[in-house]
Amino acid sequence: MSIDESTARKVAHLARIRVEEDELPALASEFNTILGFIEQLQEVDVDGVEPMVSVTPMRLKRREDVVTDGSQAAKVLSNAPDAREGFFAVPKVVE
Questions:
Q1: pTM over cut 0.70
Q2: What is the average pLDDT across 47-56?
Q3: Key word Oxidoreductase present in the record (predicted)?
Q4: How far apart are CA 17 and CA 86, in angstroms?
Q5: CA torsion, points 30, 36, 37, 40, in degrees to nearest 10?
Q6: Separation in Å, CA 89 to CA 9, 68, 82
Q7: What is the pLDDT of residues 59-94, one digit of tens each?
Q8: CATH of 5-42 given 1.10.20, 1.10.357, 3.40.50, 1.10.12
Q9: Where are the beta strands (DSSP E) in the chain?
């Protein structure tokens, strides 16, 4: 797959990146270089290779999945401009 200037312009537009017209050939070239690297990676045979999280074999630390209040309600509410009965107080917006 090859990226031309019009495709580079479209990608820049979709990514909301302003690219000047004279910079489009360089951007297209960079895209083509990246796609070349991806094609090289696709040539690697990974059959039978276990997915890994890290380059060193270790088990991830896990904690029990329980719901808590975080034990910081007072600290969190201290940042609120108005708090009542343990909740944020906000102006009424619906009649």
A1: no
A2: 83
A3: no
A4: 45
A5: 180
A6: 48, 22, 5
A7: 778 888 888 878 888 888 998 899 999 899 998 888
A8: 1.10.20
A9: 83-84, 87-88
How would you classify the pairing of strands 87-88 and 83-84? antiparallel
Domain boundaries, the chain: 5-42
Q: Which residues make beta-bridge pairs with 83?
A: 88
**Residue 88 main-chain phi, psi, to 5 deg:** -70, 135
Per the CB < 8 A criterion, the answer to whether 24 and 1 are in contact is no
Give, to the nearest 10 degrees, the angle between helix 24-42 and helix 5-14.
Answer: 90
* Chain length of the chain: 95
Q: Which residue shows structure tokens 């009424």? A: 92
Q: Do the beta carbons of residue 27 and residue 8 sit within 8 Å?
A: yes
Q: What angle do CA 5, 9, 11 make, to 5 degrees?
A: 115
